Amino acid sequence: MQKKTYTYLFFLFLTIGLYGQEREIFKDTTVSTQHSLKLNNKQLDYTAISGMQPLWNDKDEVIASLHYTYYRKKTKNQKAGQERPLVISFNGGPGSASAWMHIAYTGPKLLKISDEGYPVQPYGIKDNPHSILDVADILYVNPVNTGYSRMVKTDDKKPKREQFFGINADIRYLANWLNTFVNRHNKWLAPKYLIGESYGGTRVSGLALELQKQQWMYLNGVILVSPADYLTFESDTPLAASLFLPYYTATAWYHKQLPSDLQNQDLEDILPQAEKYAYETLLPALAKGSSLKTSKKEKIATELERMTGIDTQLFVDHHLALPSNVFWKELLNQPGNDKTIGRLDSRYLGIDKKRSGNRPDYNAELTSWLHAFTPAINYYLREGLNFKTDLKYNMFGPVHPWDRTNNNTREQLRQAMAQNPYLNVLFQTGYYDGATTYFHSKYTSNQLDPGGKMKDRIDFKTYRSGHMMYLRKEDLKTATEDIRAFIKKSIPKNGKPAKY
After folding, report:
1. Is the pTM of this model over 0.85?
2. Largest CB tally within 10 Å, which of 20, 242, 350, 405?
3. Do the domain assignments include residue 407?
4. Do residues 384 and 473 share a domain?
């Protein structure tokens, strides 16, 4: 059910040259549409606002215009709307648009896919019976060069890329942009939450402190969906490699590649064994490097074959630090029926030209997702939200090179929590995610507060799917319920002071 109304602010036009043509977008505009959704057997009426909001530099010049979509539940009065929780959603990449969680997770609409997350035709959109709109208003933001968001020329010159494309630059300009949004929509009284997926986890971890220190905006929660903590992946090999082991075990179990004594157990019964082995045996062995005795290396490699389905000799050849790309290529590399497995979700299968090689020819899961998401988001924005432009919607935009230096986002999130007793953190991870694995995230959650003083404000949830756990119907229901519970838990009772 939908009624359409339109509101355009200022009609400031930006002309940019793309593909040899002149295309016009609005620097500052909104399109509002009215909708209703059935949630928990109740009708929920809401307003959808899709638009472009400018970003200014220190000279008050517009240097970018960011596309966003904002869903606001209709309330009995203005004050109730101002006090409603606000969830601010970012995807990752870096360079990824916000489409993924927008039309597959928390928003009021879902793209049409199978119950396990595979594309189906006809493409399209349907109502999301699991949307979190019943407990919070939701804002989806496309950073610069993603979605319809673009840099803006000043005096016929584009702004310098380093203002946007780096860990710390990204955090700074998005905090400024969010301040403008909160002002415009009068959400200062609302409990506020950031949710970030993949690289978006890095982004929102840093934003939590940046908003506190530079915008004086304090949060109630940060939700990290399959977060990419580069500190775990870019550390020395012993730590980074050992943290992959439980994921290897989970994926081998899913594809029935483990010996019967392990395969016949439930997944969550065998993973603690893999976690213990990763920490207590594999990590110390890798740390020894060349001083590890050959006999010990071979013994560990034999046990690793048992726990992963990967041949002992491959572990020996890689000095026990098996690269994940080799795992994706080799797990199902069997004569006559060889398949590769997906990186972001290893339930997905691919077909390579040759059995030889050390990595799959393509990411089976990503091609599948783009197959479903691209037509759905383009159709929905134009026909469902009436936001029409000739610009290309960048599912992945040109943001590289990306400056990854001075990454202190994990510590920034810790500081934000320490300085704000209201701030809670929720991790959501999938067992079959081979890019940002659940055990890397578990390590991050343990290191976030190594002293354990804030552990009652950190929740960790796992799901039997991959990077985008919400694509699996069963996990969509569970994961959105986990977010609802987290939001309710993190809103203090009236009058409860924020103090230790």
Report:
1. yes
2. 242
3. yes
4. yes
Domain of 382, in residue numbers: 29-232+371-490
Say how far apart CA 76 and CA 69 lie, in whole Å.
22
Domain boundary among 304, 336, 362: 362
Closest CA to 349 of 336, 367, 374: 367
| 245-254 vs 438-448: helix crossing angle, rounded to 10 | 150
If asked whether residues 324 and 199 sit together in one domain, one would say no
Q: Report angle CA 212, 216, 217 to the nearest 5 degrees.
A: 70
Q: Which residues of 333-349 are buried (b: 16+ CB within 10 A; e: fewer)?
A: beeeeebbbbbbbbbbe
**Bridge partners, 21 (sequence order):** 18
CA distance 236 to 290: 15
Q: Which residues lie below 8 Å from residue 352, measured CB to CB, with a gap of 6+? A: 329, 338, 340, 360, 361
Say whether both 121 and 267 belong to one domain. Answer: no
Dihedral pair phi/psi, residue 113, rounded to 5°: -140, 170
Give a yes or no: residue 356 inside a domain.
yes
Whole-angstrom distance, CA of residue 213 vs CA of residue 9 = 30
The residue assigned the tokens 């079959």 is 432
What CATH number does the domain containing 134 carry?
Answer: 3.40.50.1820
Same domain, 61 and 203: yes
Rg of the chain in Å (alpha carbons): 23
Same domain, 49 and 175: yes
Q: Is the same domain home to 144 and 41?
A: yes
- Predicted confidence (pLDDT) at residue 7 exceeds the cutoff of 60: no
Q: Are residues 82 and 227 in the same domain?
A: yes
* CA atoms 326, 329, 332, 336: torsion sign: negative
Cβ atoms within 10 Å of 29's Cβ, excluding its own: 21
Query: Does pLDDT of 196 surpass 70?
Result: yes
Domain presence at residue 10: no
Mean pLDDT (the chain) is 93
Judged by DSSP in three states, 70 sits in strand
Tell me if 187 is assigned to some domain: yes
Percent of the chain with pLDDT over 90: 89
Task: Answer yes or no: is pLDDT of 235 > 90.
Answer: no
Give the three-class secondary structure for 429. Answer: strand
Return d(Cα 72, Cα 411) in angstroms, integer: 33
Is 86:136 a contact under the CB 8 Å cutoff?
yes
CA distance 279 to 84: 43
Q: Classify the phi-psi angles of 186: left when phi > 0, otherwise alpha if psi is within -120 to 50, otherwise beta.
A: left
Same domain, 225 and 297: no
Please give the pLDDT value at position 339.
Answer: 97
pLDDT digit string (tens) for 150-162?
Answer: 999 888 888 999 9
Give the integer Cα–Cα distance in Å for 489 and 405: 35
When pLDDT is cut at 50, 70 and 90, the band that residue 40 belongs to is: confident
Tally of structural domains, the chain: 2
